[in-house]
Amino acid sequence: MGYVPLGTVFGFLFVQAGAVWWIPPLASLLVFAGAAQFMVIPMLVAGASIEAIVAATFIINLRHLFYGISLLDRMPSNLLARTYLIWVLTDENYSVITTLPRNTSSARLVGVAMLNHMWWVLGALVGSVVGAQVSHSLTGLDFSLAALFAVLAAEQWRATRQAMPILVAVASYLLAWWFVPSQALLASITISLLTGLVILQMRAKESAP
């Protein structure tokens, strides 16, 4: 249900930026890109081209490719269910799905993802309606996205008790911010992924007979 306030913030900010009230819930229903949806708002306000928005969205959501690879053995065999899970694979859905037992049924995986999707759409609808009635902006609302990521990281820690992912993420961002501050997010994601692959390969070698 954390998606409700987050979707509300998205809907509110989008309408405050000049969108018609029905666009945020429709975008959330058809796109459902999480952080990328927040990113698009200032780009639209600044008059960015469609090409620039597509490129930025591709870069931001490139991490989902690696999410999907790690979930290949848990994806449903049913084509429709598999396609839906791929389409709605956001950071939050990934975080929740990976904390579920490995023997969780496909129906429950799809149900969890669908529930999150609908919570987001509901939040976007509420935020857009409220935003259409409020004449002034509320500074700082977009921090709710960072707050949700913090909660997800805490839940991952509670479920796995593994500090390595958090340490790698923090170290990667500090390293990226030091060398390429203008592209720190993209660089830190890349460093984190490469580090994760190296660690997995080392563990595989250690467990090999």
Question: Which tags fit this structure?
Answer:
209 residues; mainly alpha; globular
Give an overview in words.
The protein has 209 residues and is mainly α. 75% of the residues lie in helices and 0% in strands. It has eleven helices and no strands. It has helices at residues 3-16, 23-30, 35-45, 50-60, 63-70, 79-87, 91-99, 106-133, 143-160, 164-179, 184-207. The longest helix is centred in the middle third of the chain and has 28 residues, at 106-133. It is globular. The chain starts with a helix and ends with a helix. The model has no long low-confidence stretch (mean pLDDT 84).
The description of the largest β-sheet is: none
> Structural class, from secondary structure content?
mainly alpha
Silhouette: globular
Mean of the pLDDT scores?
A: 84
**SS element count, helices:** 11
What low-confidence regions span 5 or more consecutive residues with pLDDT below 50?
Answer: none
Rg, alpha carbons: 18 Å
Distance between the termini: 45 Å
Oligomer: single chain
What sequence of helices (H) and strands (E) makes up the elements? HHHHHHHHHHH
- Please estimate the helix content: over 70%
The count of DSSP E runs of length 2 or more, i.e. the number of strands, is: 0
Strand content: under 5%
